Amino acid sequence: MKRMTREWIRKAEDDFRVAGIIAAASEPFHDQVCFHCQQSAEKYLKAMLEEFGQSVPKTHDLEDLLDRLLPHHASLDRQRRGLRVLTEFAVDPRYPLMHSTKRQAASALRWAGNVRDACRSLLGLRPPRRRRK
Question: Does residue 128 lie within any of the structural domains?
């Protein structure tokens, strides 16, 4: 695996873990959960592009990233619906009057987890170890 692929994965894992920590907290920071879920999925898709020697565009459009990956792994198309949902969280939650709900945060975590699992599997990576408390 390429060094830059590993770097993208490390960043993607950080975002996924932060989303989980925030979601488990007692205060409802749904916007931040949704944002970090989108970021995790984006970085996992960019890791895949890097590994396949494709250019990594500066975009938050997850369907665009997906379309670039489909020639390599058509099975990723199963993630399209979730990626469409997650793309909405790239920008909107960071602005006033745009608020994510608890339900949206739970959905974002689920979709980001699906993308994470699919990408890790295609890259031949085992599931990350659970951290001990």
Answer: no
Residue with tokens 């907290």: 25
| Residue 47 burial class via C-beta count within 10 angstroms: exposed 0-12, middle 13-18, buried 19 and up | buried
Runs of H (alpha helix) within the chain: 3-24, 30-51, 62-69, 80-87, 102-122
**Residue of 23, 12, 31 whose CA lies nearest to 96:** 31
Structural domain includes residue 133: no
pTM above 0.85, yes or no: yes
pLDDT digits (tens, 9 = 90+) for 30-46: 999 999 999 999 999 99
Domain count of the fold of the chain: 1
The overall average pLDDT reported for the chain is: 94
CATH number for the domain including 11? 1.20.120.330
pLDDT over 70 for what percent of the chain?
Answer: 96
How many other C-beta atoms can be found within 10 angstroms of the C-beta atom of residue 71?
9
